[in-house]
Specification:
Helix content: 25-40%
CATH topology of the largest domain: TIM Barrel
Structural class: alpha/beta
Number of strands: 18
Number of helices: 12
CATH superfamily of the largest domain: Metal-dependent hydrolases
CATH architecture of the largest domain: Alpha-Beta Barrel
Largest sheet: 9 strands, mixed
């Protein structure tokens, strides 16, 4: 991967451009000067001062967005840093990401929010902090949510922890309404989860591993939907995994509850049968579920119940994965493999419309989290992801730019690959 300063004068020719307004693809050239799109039309003529790049055969999309990443800084820089996370993100086509607050110290103060912005200012990806709901993410005392929003927190979450106390969550939702920011809930009731390490099923019983039942998620989702209905707040359910959760969210949307939801590429791809390998790279929270759950998640994407695809990129040092399932950390990296999984599993295999899938990693998350709306039109900053929808490639250690490589997808062959990214005054050749 090569990260270089964006040419002052650049012409992209023969582009197949994603046009969400028309729900179609448009063939045109893109003229960029000083990082701003100056023209989008066919057959643009320029002088020799412009660098020309022929993108025939490639698709040009608004820059991808991931609203659920863990960049571990401060506190766990042995797993990831803002810099290494940014490299992982841009290699996967992502130009904007939202990082979760489960750092050390947690992002629960104005200083913590400012730290993320200041440390990432010169990185090739826009990194937005999601601040904690409660101090120390302990679930008891609310953070100064209004003050955190003033300095740039785009949402609030105790991700990694469930806000177990419903009264605390009620108050959090009421404060979130004051600043019109979503609450992002990690929906796993801790008492019902009871330290389970994989989905509770016949598989867990056969393997002798403690199960984490689907009801732990569904009761959490049900409670938070009820609180959102009561308070009128915006709730975003992170990494949905069960069929019943999808049904609950679908019904709540029809009733007017301000709920949005996300799903991860790995929950759309793998089932709990993966754990038969006793590979700790399959240990995640919430866990991999059943085939029926996977089908329900796909259906939720199709009908709009699930608004966003997010990676839950969760790097861990290899020694925390090369151990027993019970002792291993939960989580996998996802930024570099996400687009390959999305294209291979959803677009090529399941024939989901590419335009609709791209919305779930571009304009949908931007609108929900109040980020830069990614557009390919005149007068806006160039924020583009270029990909080849038909290139086969193998996901390997060489294609990982994260500091960690905890993933079950090493060796997978993907169809669809990011080729270039233009963002923040950089041009990245992947």
């Amino acid at each position: 991967m090569e990260i270089k300063k964006l040419e002052r004068k650049l012409l992209l020719t023969n582009c197949l451009i994603v046009d969400f307004e028309k729900s179609d693809f448009v063939r045109a050239d893109i003229l960029i000067e000083n990082g701003i799109i100056k023209e989008v039309k066919a057959n643009i003529e320029v002088d020799n001062n412009f660098k020309k790049i022929d993108l025939k055969g490639f698709v040009v999309s608004p820059g991808f967005i991931d609203v659920h990443v863990h960049f571990r800084e401060p506190g766990y820089e042995n797993a990831e840093t803002l810099e290494s996370g940014a490299r992982a993100a841009v290699s996967g086509g992502f130009t904007q990401v939202c990082c979760m607050p489960n750092t050390e110290p947690p992002i629960d103060t104005q200083e913590g929010v400012k730290f993320v912005y200041e440390k990432s200012e010169n990185l090739p990806v826009y990194i937005y902090p999601i601040a904690a709901i409660t101090k120390r993410r302990a679930g008891s005392e609310l953070t100064e949510m209004v003050e955190l929003a003033k300095v740039g927190a785009v949402a609030f979450s105790d991700d990694g922890n469930y806000v177990q106390n419903p009264l605390v969550m009620r108050y959090a939702m009421e404060y979130s309404k004051l600043v019109d920011k979503p609450i992002v809930e990690h929906a796993e009731d801790e008492l019902l989860k009871d330290n389970g390490v994989m989905n509770e099923s016949f598989v867990s019983t056969r393997l002798g591993l403690k199960g984490n039942p689907y009801i732990a998620e569904e009761i959490a989702v049900y409670r938070d939907l009820a609180l959102a209905r009561f308070t009128g707040a915006r709730i975003h359910i992170a990494h949905v995994t069960t069929a019943r959760s999808v049904d609950l969210i679908r019904k709540a949307k029809k009733e007017g509850v301000k709920v949005t939801a996300e799903v991860t590429p790995h929950h759309l791809t793998l089932t709990d049968s993966y754990m038969e390998n006793f590979d700790a790279n399959g240990k995640i929270a919430p866990p991999l579920r059943s085939e029926e759950d996977v089908e329900a998640l796909v259906e939720g994407l199709k009908d709009g119940t699930i608004d966003v695809i997010a990676t839950d990129h969760a790097p861990h040092p290899i020694e925390t994965k090369e151990t027993t399932i019970n002792e291993a950390s939960s989580g996998i990296i996802g930024l570099e493999s996400a687009f390959g999984l999305i294209m291979t599993n959803l677009v090529h295999k399941r024939n989901l419309p590419l335009i609709e899938i791209l919305k779930k990693i571009t304009i949908n998350p931007a609108k929900i989290f109040g980020l830069r709306i990614p557009e390919v039109k005149r007068g806006v900053q160039a924020n583009l992801t270029v990909f080849d929808p038909d290139e086969w490639w193998i996901f390997s250690r060489k294609t990982i730019y994260s500091k960690s490589y905890n993933t079950p997808f090493l060796g997978y062959e993907f169809l669809g690959r990011v080729k270039q990214v233009i963002t923040k005054g950089y041009r990245v050749i992947v």
